Amino acid sequence: MKKNALYAQSGGVTAVINATAGALILEAKRSKKIGKVFAAKNGILGALREDLIDTSKESISALRSLSYRPGGVFGSCRYKLKDIDSNLKEYTRLIEVFKAHNIGYFFYNGGNDSADTAFKVSQISQKLDYPIQCIAIPKTVDNDLALTDCCPGFGSAAKYIATSTLEASLDVASMSETSTKVFILEVMGRHAGWMAASSALARKGKSDAPHIILLPEVVFDQKEFLSSVKKIVNKNGYCVIVVSEGVKNKKGHFLSESTNKDAFGHAQLGGVAPFIAELINTKLKLKNHWAVSDYLQRSARHIASKTDLEHAEAVGSSAVKFALKGMNGVMPIIVRSKGPKYKWSIEPAPLSKIANLEKKLPKSFIAKNKMDITQKAIDYLMPLIQGESNPPYKNGIPYIHDFKLSMVKKSLPSWK
Amino acid sequence: MKKNALYAQSGGVTAVINATAGALILEAKRSKKIGKVFAAKNGILGALREDLIDTSKESISALRSLSYRPGGVFGSCRYKLKDIDSNLKEYTRLIEVFKAHNIGYFFYNGGNDSADTAFKVSQISQKLDYPIQCIAIPKTVDNDLALTDCCPGFGSAAKYIATSTLEASLDVASMSETSTKVFILEVMGRHAGWMAASSALARKGKSDAPHIILLPEVVFDQKEFLSSVKKIVNKNGYCVIVVSEGVKNKKGHFLSESTNKDAFGHAQLGGVAPFIAELINTKLKLKNHWAVSDYLQRSARHIASKTDLEHAEAVGSSAVKFALKGMNGVMPIIVRSKGPKYKWSIEPAPLSKIANLEKKLPKSFIAKNKMDITQKAIDYLMPLIQGESNPPYKNGIPYIHDFKLSMVKKSLPSWK
Question: Does A400 contact B166 at a Cβ distance shorter than 8 Å?
């Protein structure tokens, strides 16, 4: 009897994580070697709760529409499994669920934490003697996974950021003489500056926006920063700043925390743009505007990168191929070929070398003035935003297909 | 000798104001009845300073590319002319510039204030005996001009807002069980809620996002609002709120002002999302995220509405046609035909009936619960976001054509 597969999404979703899911499910179907693909409702929690969605009930057109659908259609969650040794209960429960539904393949689609969880699940075979093959599939707008050249989801967020920076800068430029002189765009990236860096792709000429990029890898130097803004406004007439939510001051505190403490009560990230705006108000007295993209940047499927979409689909179908080759505890990663033309392939990499690591911007990618990136960084980033893949539209907005999301009948006692 | 024309942009730019400029210049060329079209650099200030751009130096492909270019290519400004009687100096200067460059047609592309300025300029012929035909051309993302059915620029902003609301809501929905429960999107609209209202176009089903729309036409009722958020989260698992920057409390103060007073020093609008977030943090203790679109929403040419683009081009070419018919002091407005199918035409309307008026959401467009819009509003809005018109891309971002922006030789003493 063919083994079934379980697919789960983990952590923050992206514009193309569903594309990975769709490619995986369709590849499993094509292979004829896998029974059903179940999707865990709301990530690993659904696996523990036996909340399984039967994807075989969805039409082929619904499955294909996953390539166009942002968010996580089966739901995701933030939930990290502990070690097998310290929390055996969760693993034995997983095995019960796997057994009850004849699951032989577990595909876990997420970032650093998820690679860690997947690595632990991959050890079940050895440590708990249940035959499961576990493949982690990369996904994160943060682009901070080790080994893989880039992470599916990032390229589309990068394209959104570059395009938004370009468009807003044309707006600011037209009005700067009598109105706004400084525009600040806050982007995601708590520890790694990949998203902020991608705004540099908006430039055609040297004096084009963005003029300043504030990265979380660089300690914020208020004096240098303000002096740069002033110089740029004097020279250009306006200044466009892209700032990562994770920028910290010398004391190691997030800039957003320091403002938000009084006004907003708690230290949720996502307020560094108003902090920078306030600084420019009080110290330079320059009229400014600010935008915070927040979820818009990671869900903007309407402006997805075709290259990113292809990566997302390739890691999904490769996960199935690797599983069918008998692999366990690996991740299909994107490998960039050397040479002037952008070429890539998918190869398996061991989860032990990926779990819990965080890939920040290398020093060679950060400009000497610490407020920009180097040509080397641009050469790395540029291929990742290439190509457009427009979703179908209906009634003026992207068309979102209906899903049955039919739940599998439970056979186990409820969990916890 | 053929008269030349002067075109100027005014106030905040949009994703399609350049499309109006392009259509106007190309129509003037086609007519063979107008000499050159000069564009004032940075709006009416350029006209006063004799800073004129000779658009005849631009290639046809550059002029055609205006249909794809956000921002204002010739520059815009916020500058309102006073009455002829109280500030004759500015008008006599305008006449000097018109005379020096044989200008017989003045096209002024803007919102309420610009319609007022254009109306005053249109009176020059009568009051100061200089033969000038002045046509105001509508433009504003605020959609608040009187008489015209809608304003070019609005449909594209509306499409951006509806699409962003849809995409972000799919993101929030996937994570809501263990993460963010409330998402807040702040949109523009200081006095009129057209942009916030357009987020309702993101819905397919009744329980779809946005769940709450806060309009500037409605006084903010904190108790009702918080009770609604709570109910919606309990029922749906998450709640998406779209809030207009111009929402005010019972005392008539902008909500954004009340927060920003301490933290940001001055009363610049654009901080109502963090205010709402803080309210939800402290009163409901629900995890939330917020986004502020700011300039992104009015410059997002990459997701322009094709209908809006067609409106923008039609008002540009009609302005030339009306001028050549001898009209003065009019605006080409968009007139919607009655009947179930959306049809529209362009007709001239007198500036005296447009200048300084502000069209807010009518009562029949606001839902009974005051936190949503009616079906009548949706029926009005829906046609305006229909159709896609993708810009050409190069290197992964929208391609921006180079312009010569060749300045006309000055022949007058400098102004002021």
Answer: yes
pLDDT band at B265 (very low <50, low <70, confident <90, very high): very low
Identify whether residues A326 and A192 lie together within a single domain.
no
Same domain, B138 and B188: no
Are B75 and A174 in contact (CB < 8 Å)?
yes
Q: What is the pLDDT of residues A306-363, one digit of tens each?
A: 999 999 999 999 999 999 999 999 999 999 999 989 999 999 999 999 998 999 999 9
Q: Where a domain ends, among B301, B319, B344? A: B301
- Summary mean pLDDT of chain A: 94
Domain that holds residue A133: 4-140+303-357+387-398
> In chain B, positions 160-219, which contact chain A (CB-CB < 8 Å)?
162-164, 166-175, 177-179, 183, 185, 201-202, 204
A chain contacts of residue B298, beta-carbon cutoff 8 Å: 171
Q: Are A201 and A386 in contact (CB under 8 A)?
A: no
Q: Structure tokens of A166?
A: 């370009």
3-state secondary structure B183-247: EEEEECCCCCCHHHHHHHHHCCCCCCCCCEEECCCCCCCHHHHHHHHHHHHHHHCCEEEEEECCC
Residues of A with a known catalytic role: 142
Nearest-Cα residue of chain A relative to residue B74: A174
CA B373 to chain centre: 21
Return residues 80-139 of B near A (CB < 8 Å).
none
Examine the pLDDT at B207 and tell me if it is beyond 60.
Answer: yes
Let me know whether B264 and B290 are in one domain.
yes
pLDDT tens readout for residues A18-44: 999 999 999 999 999 999 999 999 999
Q: List chain A residues with CB under 8 Å of B396.
A: 159, 162, 201, 305, 382, 385-387
Residue B191: what are its φ and ψ, rounded to 5°? -120, -25
Q: Confidence class of residue B384 from pLDDT cuts 50, 70 and 90?
A: very high
CATH code (residue A288)? 3.40.50.460
Residue B31 lies in a domain: yes
First to last CA, chain B: 31
B269 has pLDDT over 60: no
3-state DSSP call for residue A339?
Answer: coil
Full-prediction pTM beyond 0.90? yes
Classify residue A226: in a domain, yes or no: yes
**ipTM of the prediction:** 0.96
Same domain, B29 and B72: yes
Q: Is residue B394 part of a domain?
A: yes
Residue B126 C-alpha, separation from nearest chain A C-alpha, in angstroms? 31
Q: Choose, from B54, B116, B142, B308, the residue flagged as catalytic.
A: B142
